[in-house]
């Protein structure tokens, strides 16, 4: 009988006309129906010992059906009242008791107690069977036939028919079980598979006991059985989840460990043992052994201090880079991510370990390749450029400006500027050929003339190719320019520069491929974790824990993806992306670090910089917020007259903090305000260089974009000669 009855089972037990009681393995009453309470009085109360129902000495122990028949006992409640006690042991532990009052007249129908007891067993889906040794026929109750998917057969089944239902692999065990029960005193248990009439196998947990006659000779086997098929299905599902987890971590080369609170040695996965070159049967090292024998000597104290602080603190997770020394002396670079489940008495610690050695080597190779390309480019006078075909963002290095006789700037030339540099006779051809190459995604090469500011003409060669990211599909065009004025008559020099061009293109392809190669194994981890999370699972007590563990895997995978993005910052810059890391930022310390950076500019323009109340904390990227403040304050200083002032203060405004910057600048017209945030638009002040006001016209566009990325905004009120920044 299960710990909780099936739906409406209690109602049916209450309606039974015979007194029924459920006694637990500890001898205490678990359930009593209304008939039992009426018959036995106050003694029929859940939690009291069953023996208290009867007069002293009347009941000492519950008999087994195989060793004793019904018993006649006297009740404490109602002196002189005797009952016939029927007992049925339950496979899950405990007994079902049926009490029938003994009457001299109008006795109840024969077998009434047994009928009600059968009803109770049926409600609990407990199969009951009896194997008559004289006839070799096996009789089952309705629950047993239901478990086998067969219609009830009052005549029972022959022993041969019963054996036909047993799984061939379990038949020898079942026969040995019967032989053992023939000579063993007391019940014997066995779990075996039985065929259902409609197909498939059911797992049944059975208990049998030998019944003897008055002469002590074997008479019959009596048994009960519970269908545990669902339990096996759950176990198989758990094993499948474990296997899939092992495959996912093994495919990604990730090792994991677990340690219960109070234990010295935890468990390591096979991949983790391989990573540390620990033999399969060697004991898992303790923390002290791990620090002393595996961690690099220069890292031991730092790792020990951080790990101890984490284990004793309030933080649930810890990310820690570690260098280890393997037994062969080789050095490995690891990334560890650990988690503590602090709830409950059994606190658990988990962790995953990822080997970054190969990735670090790839990063070093990438850096060396980049440096070689840069050296080759500078040595050959190459200018490099890049165009993001999705966003239109462009990048020029310094040499691109120098090849056109212009001073380098931290931006790419606009289209109008590029056309102005081209020789008039070459403009249409260059524009047409480049547009065709961009449309077809094919490499582009050309030679054209540029006019320098001093009037001289130079020949430039241009080569470019389109690069497509194999993972994201993003398209970029990367190219080079170089001066070929002297090369037109020197073929050898031309070949050298073409070699430098090929190295530059190889570098760009290497960057794109490396991004894909580093992400592929990690995507496998995240993909498998997402598959496990998408699996609805089964409703078991272990399911929440399993889902948390899968979430730990998924969370650890996502965290590692962010680390890879940081390593590939160069790729992110080339794609025009900008990373924003929001965190609580105290405004006063940030301004204290920022204002000294403006001191030289303030002194040069003769402007006083005043600082008001700036207390408060904002959620922002500190580096980007400092960039915004430097830009806005720099503009305020540059456009204020000598002897003027710039005032900075911060005030709370509801759930936001408003940073107000007021200056004594010259102000702007409504028309200028409408174009304030347009890139490269200096609002008609391009000719004001004589005033000492320098700039590219993109500062406020960057400020606006950064503030919006950080959840803030920028507002300007020129009629009051103020510039207001809100974050």
Question: How would you describe this structure to a colleague?
Answer:
By secondary structure, the protein is of the alpha+beta class. It is 38% helix and 25% strand. The strands form 6 sheets. The chain has a 6-stranded antiparallel sheet, sandwiched between helices. The protein has a 5-stranded antiparallel sheet with strand order 2-1-5-4-3. Strands 13-12-16-15-14 form a 5-stranded antiparallel sheet, with helices on both faces. Helix 7 runs antiparallel to helix 15 (491-534) and helix 11 (357-380) runs antiparallel to helix 15 (491-534). The longest helix is centred in the C-terminal third of the chain and has 44 residues, at 491-534. The relative contact order is 0.05. Mean pLDDT is 77; it is low at 1-7, 104-111, 565-576 and 720-727.
Helices and strands in order, then pairings?
Elements lengths: L8 H7 L3 E5 L5 E4 L1 H7 L30 E4 L7 E8 L5 E7 L10 H12 L3 E6 L4 E4 L1 H7 L8 E2 H7 L5 H13 L4 E8 L5 E12 L5 E10 L1 H24 L1 E7 L6 E2 L1 H6 L11 H7 L6 H13 L4 E9 L5 E11 L6 E8 L1 H24 L2 E6 L5 E3 L1 H5 L12 H7 L5 H14 L3 E8 L5 E12 L6 E9 L7 H44 L8 H25 L1 H6 L8 E4 H8 L4 H7 L2 E4 L5 E4 L1 H17 L6 E9 L2 E8 L6 H5 L24 H11 L3 E5 L4 E5 L1
Parallel strand pairs: 23-25
Antiparallel strand pairs: 1-2, 1-5, 3-4, 4-5, 6-7, 6-11, 7-8, 9-10, 10-11, 12-13, 12-16, 14-15, 15-16, 17-18, 17-21, 19-20, 20-21, 22-24, 25-26, 26-28, 27-28
Helix pairs in contact: 7-15, 11-15, 15-16, 20-22
């Amino acid at each position: 009988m299960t710990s909780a009855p099936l739906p409406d089972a209690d109602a049916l037990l209450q309606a039974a006309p015979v007194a029924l009681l459920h006694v637990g393995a500890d001898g205490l009453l678990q359930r009593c129906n209304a008939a039992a309470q009426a018959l036995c009085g106050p003694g029929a109360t859940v939690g009291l010992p069953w023996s208290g129902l009867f007069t002293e000495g009347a009941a000492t122990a519950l008999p087994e059906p195989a060793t004793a028949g019904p018993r006649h006992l006297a009740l404490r409640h109602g002196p002189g009242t005797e009952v016939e006690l029927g007992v049925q042991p339950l496979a899950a532990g405990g007994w079902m008791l049926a009490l029938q009052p003994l009457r001299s007249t109008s006795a109840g129908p024969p077998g009434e107690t047994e009928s009600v007891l059968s009803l109770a067993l049926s409600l609990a889906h407990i199969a009951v069977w009896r194997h008559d040794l004289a006839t070799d026929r096996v009789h089952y109750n309705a629950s047993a036939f239901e478990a086998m998917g067969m219609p009830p057969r009052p005549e029972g089944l022959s022993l041969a028919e019963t054996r036909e239902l047993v799984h061939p692999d379990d038949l020898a065990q079942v026969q040995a079980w019967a032989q053992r029960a023939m000579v063993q005193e007391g019940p014997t248990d066995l779990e075996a598979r039985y065929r259902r009439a409609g197909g498939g196998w059911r797992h049944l947990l059975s208990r049998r006991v030998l019944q003897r006659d008055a002469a002590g000779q074997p008479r019959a086997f009596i048994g009960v059985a519970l269908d545990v098929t669902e339990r096996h299905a759950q176990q198989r599902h758990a094993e499948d989840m474990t296997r899939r987890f092992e495959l996912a971590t093994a495919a990604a080369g990730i090792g994991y460990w677990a340690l219960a609170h109070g234990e010295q040695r935890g468990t390591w996965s096979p991949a983790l043992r391989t990573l540390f070159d620990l033999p399969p049967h060697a004991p898992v090292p303790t923390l002290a052994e791990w620090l002393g024998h595996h961690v690099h000597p220069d890292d031991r104290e730092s790792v020990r201090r951080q790990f101890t602080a984490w284990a004793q603190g309030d933080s649930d997770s810890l990310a820690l880079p570690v260098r280890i020394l393997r037994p062969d002396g080789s050095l490995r670079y690891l990334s560890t991510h650990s988690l503590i489940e602090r709830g409950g008495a059994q606190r658990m610690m988990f962790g995953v370990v990822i080997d970054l050695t190969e990735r670090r080597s790839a990063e070093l190779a990438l850096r060396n390749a980049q440096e070689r390309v840069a050296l080759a480019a500078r040595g050959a006078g190459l200018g490099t450029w890049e165009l993001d075909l999705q966003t239109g963002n462009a990048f020029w290095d310094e040499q691109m400006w120098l090849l056109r006789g212009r001073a380098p700037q931290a931006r790419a030339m606009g289209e109008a500027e590029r056309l102005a540099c081209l020789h008039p006779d070459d403009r249409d051809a260059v524009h047409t050929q480049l547009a065709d190459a961009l449309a077809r995604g094919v490499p582009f090469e050309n030679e054209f003339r540029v006019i320098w500011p001093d009037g001289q003409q130079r020949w430039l060669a241009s080569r470019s190719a389109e690069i497509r990211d194999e993972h994201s599909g993003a398209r970029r065009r990367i190219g080079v320019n170089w001066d070929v004025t002297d090369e037109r008559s020197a073929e050898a020099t031309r070949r050298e520069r073409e070699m430098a061009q090929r190295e530059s293109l190889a570098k760009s392809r290497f960057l794109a491929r490396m991004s894909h190669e580093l992400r592929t194994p990690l995507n496998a981890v995240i993909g498998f974790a997402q598959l496990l999370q998408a699996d609805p699972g089964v409703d078991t007590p272990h399911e929440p824990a399993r889902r948390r563990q899968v979430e730990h895997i998924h969370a650890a995978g996502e965290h590692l993806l962010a680390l890879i993005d940081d390593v590939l910052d160069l790729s992110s810059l080339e794609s025009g992306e900008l990373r924003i890391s929001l965190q609580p930022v105290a405004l006063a310390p940030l301004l204290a670090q920022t204002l000294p950076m403006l001191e030289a500019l303030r002194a040069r323009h003769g402007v006083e910089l005043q600082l008001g109340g700036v207390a408060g904390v904002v959620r922002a990227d500190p580096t980007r917020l400092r960039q915004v403040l430097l830009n806005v304050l720099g503009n305020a200083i540059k456009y204020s007259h000598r002897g003027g002032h710039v005032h900075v203060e911060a005030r709370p405004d509801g759930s936001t903090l408003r940073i107000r910057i007021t200056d004594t600048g010259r102000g702007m017209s409504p028309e200028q305000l409408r174009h304030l945030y347009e890139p490269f638009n200096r609002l008609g002040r391009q000719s004001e260089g004589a005033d000492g006001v320098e700039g590219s016209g993109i500062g406020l566009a960057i400020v606006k974009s950064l503030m919006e990325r950080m959840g803030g905004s920028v507002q300007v009120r020129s009629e009051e000669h103020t510039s207001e920044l809100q974050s």
